[in-house]
């Protein structure tokens, strides 16, 4: 029971971290593209 809950929490945290990394990556790429286009 506790092990399943632990794995569930672990999966949620990992998915949140993954989505955060993807979001930051897209923001950085868009900012880089904007600066490259303007300059």
From TrEMBL:
Keywords: Membrane, Mitochondrion, Transmembrane, Transmembrane helix. This is NADH dehydrogenase subunit 4. The chain crosses the membrane at residues 12-34. It comes from the Eukaryota. The keyword Membrane applies. It comes from Schistosoma rodhaini. The keyword Transmembrane helix applies.
């Amino acid at each position: 029971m506790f092990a399943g809950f632990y794995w569930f929490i672990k999966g949620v945290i990992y998915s949140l971290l993954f989505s955060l990394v993807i979001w930051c990556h897209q923001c950085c790429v868009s900012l880089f593209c904007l600066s490259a286009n303007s300059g």
